[in-house]
Amino acid sequence: MSDQGAAYRLQRDVDPERDHIRGGGREGDLVTVVSYGDFLCPYCRRLLPVLARLREALGDRLVYVFRHFPNERAHPGATLVARAAEAAALQGKFWPMHDRLFQREPPLTEPVLLGLAGELGLDMDRFAADLGGDEVGKRVEDDIAEGRANGVTGTPTFFVEGARYDGAWDFYSLLEALNRPVAVRVKHAGRVFASLPASGGLVLLLAAAAAIACANSPLRAGYRAIIDSTLVLGSPRWLSMTVGEWCSEGLLAIFFLLVGLEIRREMTAGTLTDRRAAVLPVVAAIGGVIAPALLYTALNHGTPLEHGWSIPTATDVAFTLGILALLGERIPAGLRVFVAALAVVDDVLSVLILAIFFPRSLEVTWLAGSAAAIVCLFALNRWRVYVTWPYAIVTVALWVTLHDAGVHGALAGVLLAAFLPTRPAPAAAPLLAQAATALAALEYAERELQDKNSGGGEGLRVDQEPVWDWASRNLSAASERLLSPADRIERAVAPWSAYVVLPLFAFSATGVSLNVDVSTAGAARILGGVVLGLVIGKPLGISLASWLAIKSGGAVAPGGVSLRQFLGAACLCGVADTVALLMADQASLPGAASAIAKIGCLLGSFIAACVGTLVLVTRSRRPA
Q: In this structure, what are the phi and psi dihedrals at residue 230, rounded to the nearest 5 degrees?
């Protein structure tokens, strides 16, 4: 799943030998702000008084770093002005030139730049030579390239303590972000953690480890009492499930909502839109489901344990993509795209397996209710209803009817994702006009009140004027138009899914006792079936299916990916998904077989992660 809440971080730390740094003349509690700016950007100029107030308020605590990000298309000549600042820097005058460039109104032509250099007492021959030289040009180009890699798309863009600041630009908001009270520090720490490639997988792993620790310690009785306790909503005959069941069937609806949105995005605007590009991950995902299922079935054929064939079929994309991200530049982008697309198809197959092979005794009346709820979702979509609460109400009804019909209620999330409306991307110009008009009206009202207050007014405030409400409504409308309901819901629930829903499910589902007698009949077979299905079946199915698809001409290999890298990624796909734990519960295995299967998921996932990483870090010589 894509991590919508991840924060951009600087890929290169501040370097006193290279970066232009102002302030920070003392040891101790310093705060670093890196600004990507454009000397011709009017918004950078409008923020100069704010930055001056911040330096005055924080003194030497504030370490201010300036990096170039000239936008030549929007501000012709911006690159030349940035070069002029770097030419002055070669003579030790960056900050005096920085201040003069921002104080001087455009246009800043070459004669104007030469005049400013003369005012600073620079060596004019050297300045003129440096202005057109390769050294300053490369420095500006390097800043631009780094800015784009850091997620900079416009100016000004700020990074506070290495993390991109996406908050308000007014003085008090920036001051709070820099002073960092406890709440801001917690939020900043959360953003930093979320920016880690494997943060979601790490939380999931910790939750699973905590569950195993509780289930194999003196806390076992309390742990089981909590997970097995009954939680009733309404009448006991209506919705009565254990806490564990609520976690698997209730909370997982949020996870399946994100799965559905991911599938939908890839099919409409992602990798799965191009037939030839989509064939390989589709075929590979199918092979990655069939092979471990066959391997498991071969080991458990003719026994009640064979119903667990689906357990080793699901891939955990959070762990897999997290490991690929941690390996950095040695992993080509094409391999990440392939694995992400494979995981989307794998999610589709997991949903179909749950819906088709693991329904409970079906109740036709409740199925009719589910159909009615789906019709309502369709109608809301066709009527272009963009507010989210009608969808939420209908989805709750859909969940209830699916649950009472004998179908896993979490599938309501996938169905909701299919009907959430999208909107065409808006033109920027009308929204810019709307936002600029609202802010200009606020600025005009603010100046009028300042004049009145200086003339003996009684502390009039702009936020008490009617224009404040009008402007805030227009700004909110312009902001909300940038995101469709599907986008807003995905952005809102993605962090909850990664850091609350899946960890709670893992905590409720993986609390199995390791004191399991594997000498009992069938124990070794189910353990071997799951482990071998993940460690051998998954990569074998993915690799064999991909090879057949490529050799037949129906698909093409991802560009720039070596055979060893492809095999390593296929091995990583053996890391089991949380859905595998759900399938272990749904398979109705006898006795302690479900607990043994979950142990097999954990053991197989660990082996698959180690093998895949080892294969990937070994240098490959020949491309696939």
A: -90, 135
